[in-house]
Amino acid sequence: MNFNSKFYLALLPVLLLGISIKAQQPIADTSKNLPLTIAQVWQKAAINSKAVQIKQLRVTSSAEAIKDAKAERLPEIGINGEYARVSNMPVYENGIFNTPTQFPVLHTTYTVGGEAYLNIYNGNKTNLEIDARKRENNIAGEQQKLTVSEVKLRAAAYYLDMQRSIIFKDLLLKDIAAQEKQLLQIKTLQKNGVVLKSDVLRAELKLSKQKLSLVQLDNDLAIANQKLNILIGLPDEQRVVPVEAVQLDTTGKETYDEYLTDAGKNAYQLKISEQETELSKLKLKNIKANVSPKVGLFAAYNYSYPQILFYPYSPSLYGLGFAGVKASFSISSFYHNSHKVKVARLDLESQEIEHAQTEDGIRQQVNEAWLRYKEALNRVDVSKTNVQQATENRRIVNNTYFNQLSLITDLLDADTQLLQTRFDLAAARIAAQLQYYQLQNVTGKL
């Protein structure tokens, strides 16, 4: 058995597998296709993402906390009632070891009444508590916006991943069609004795490998589709069709300083850090307010039986009310509160340092995202040049091969390089678009 026969037998399983895969491919059911633009994907993600829904509940909860803090300004009103049976009251006039005298008592007693207290001043703690709850609500709101931005970025990554797989598949199908035509030309040359059988086998092997690559692209597309469906609240079997082509507009882009300025105004992490710093300041003020007098209005009115509060006593129902101003001051707060103030002050200093660290982090992220974006744009330009060069190289090698001036390996390498450069250009466009979204996310504008 010669070398060509052995090579052909080794290639046969691959060829059969490629034919089997092509035969088993189901006809696409376009009824389940859902065309979506990136804006529509973002809209669905902002509504249906579970991470966003959790943040929305926290915003709602913090809004209720504000109302609860404001309710502390309302007077405290309560009612009370008491019913009791009173035992006999022995009076030991001659000592406990002698027979006592039974003092006559009324065995039933009860009281029904109400009371109210209105705080007038307590060191401004109520207003500070309301401001603190408002800060927490602002933090929850910014955290929700940050989550929406991050979810949008993740949705864009899945969306662009699907686009990349679709573009790759389209390029591969076109290349397979071109390779099939080329294979027919090579077979014609082989029948005429111009080229060897090994040239045909090499071309068939490459064509089979490309057909196998279609399976991987279909799987990549299905995986990205499911990830996107989960994120935007669609069923797993729904096929999303990206309809918005990647079009990079390199004109009119902001400069690095402009992006940095935008980040200083809009970055969600920075806003959250600012609100947390203000919250620490309010906490310090609240603790300092512990060393303050408390003043309020109070009123109470009770119906009681019997009347044993004032002499002479009376076995009758009576009513008694009080009203006035109530003031108190805790002297022990001077030494109990000092360490609490120091802890709160240290927490504030720590938060201020963390805020400065957040500013540094935002500046670093903007710089990195900006440089990577410019790098991605440059890679797109280089990839365009590479496609032109690979196209020209493939044309030259194609002519020389069919004129018997180059080898089949040169032709197949030229075909591979052309396809790879086209893949690289598509991937570079996708990466540049995703990096642009990352830059928008960092600056708080996504």
UniProtKB/TrEMBL annotation:
Tell me the SUPFAM superfamilies matching this sequence: Outer membrane efflux proteins (OEP)
Question: Which keywords fit this entry according to its UniProt record?
Answer: Cell outer membrane, Membrane, Signal, Transmembrane, Transmembrane beta strand, Transport
User: What Pfam families has UniProt attached to this entry?
Assistant: OEP (PF02321)
Keyword Cytoplasm assigned: no
Q: Which GO terms describe its cellular component?
A: cell outer membrane; efflux pump complex
> Which family would the database say this protein is a member of?
Belongs to the outer membrane factor (OMF) (TC 1.B.17) family.
Major localization listed first in the record, in broad terms: membrane
Q: Where does the record say this protein resides?
A: Cell outer membrane
Give the residue range of the signal peptide. Answer: 1-23
- The protein's name is Outer membrane protein TolC
Q: Which domain of life is it from?
A: Bacteria
> What GO MF annotations does this protein's record show?
efflux transmembrane transporter activity; porin activity
